[in-house]
């Protein structure tokens, strides 16, 4: 199979350019395939991320709506502004997340549901605000709102009735309070009628009371304020249940919308994940198919182009190998071609012609070499004679000089051995002296070290006693602080005893007052008796504590006195240790001076020993040098003899070669 482009008339550069173009096209095809696949994957991933965000926001909105419901119930149970703030935070979060959901592309199918959920959350917020305001007017506790006003009015009436000692009116007042509490607990409007009935009875008793007209008018005014506040509370309380029911209805509308959005988000997420998996499979299949097709086409074209290049090159290689083996009759292929292969064949043809020409030149050169060899032998013979005459004389002179040098070196070796023996004797004596001095120095150093160790132990003992003294001072301060605390405890116990006595007195007064109240005061009498008993127990306990505190104070003073005695003993020990340390320091200074003198003597002895060692070393070096010179002289003599033999051998070789 052959294509017009791959025939011999096409330059090699163009064929190689085609190979490069094929590689570029293959890379471009694979890049385009990868880019298209990457765009598809990016779109699928964006859709998946959008649906994940929608699902996450839907779950969060569901959680926040549950938190709204929980805060609502917590408020209805506790009547606390903190629950209102937590509810508002959940509403704000839910509305913000619903707005974020509405802005997602994946939320398009459920945008109406999201809008309905937002409206339901806003409606629940507004309705909850109404409920909170109603409870705020009624009062979160007995001190706020209408409850606080009722409490204030009742206390004002009770104060006046108590001052006038009108028990019957007080009983009616307490019965109205009981009906008030029943209404607050049960929400039954029948208690409004009960309060009206007790008010009528109260007014009848008030008219018959010995109070003045002005006092009765003031009590009636306060009772009117109380009754008006109670009826306002009852009216709001009657409607608050309905308002709370509206809250439940609004939440019931909100729940399906949130659940629908959450289900749609989960379905969209599943669809996006399936779409991503399908896109990933398609991209992988297309990319692999493109890569395989591109690879097959590129390899096929490369094979055709390579075959068109390598076949003539292989033929030329065979012809060149034959020429290298000496076969000048080989035929050069493709010599008639043009361009690169033809030029290479022409060059090989030139090699073949040059090989034929070289054979002719080699034959002529062999004849010239025979003639030059005869002339060379004659010249070498003449050179050998002249060399023997000049070099033989020089070798004889070197041999005589080496014998003289060997004799002188033996004389120097004898002198060096004598110097070495004398210096060794001096060095031995010096070393003995140095050893004795070192022994004295070592003993002095050991004595100095012992003194320093004793001094260190004494210093550490002094430091320890000082630390113990400091610790005694701190302990004394702590014991004094303990004594002060014990005194304060005694004062507190005395105060508690006084309070117990006052409490006992108050309990006695309460018992008397409850006895005066008759049947209505029996409960107060029981409580007053218990308070009195507790006051008595408190007094007994405080007496026991007072005794214990007195014992603690006594023991604390004894401990302070004992610690002061220990501190004085430690101060005496510290002074003694300091004196011993000073004496040991003086002894150590004297010992160090002796050690310094011994060290100087050792240094002088060592200097003498080092000098003798230097002389000994120099003598040994001199002997080694003499030995080296002797050896060199003998070697020189041997080498001169060897040189003579080599010269004779060289001349014989020259003559034989000539």
UniProtKB/TrEMBL annotation:
Keywords: Coiled coil, Membrane, Transducer, Transmembrane, Transmembrane helix. CDD domains: HAMP. Residues 307-360 form the HAMP domain. This is Methyl-accepting chemotaxis sensory transducer. GO terms for biological process: chemotaxis; signal transduction. It comes from Stappia indica. It holds the Pfam family HAMP. Residues 356-386 form a coiled coil.
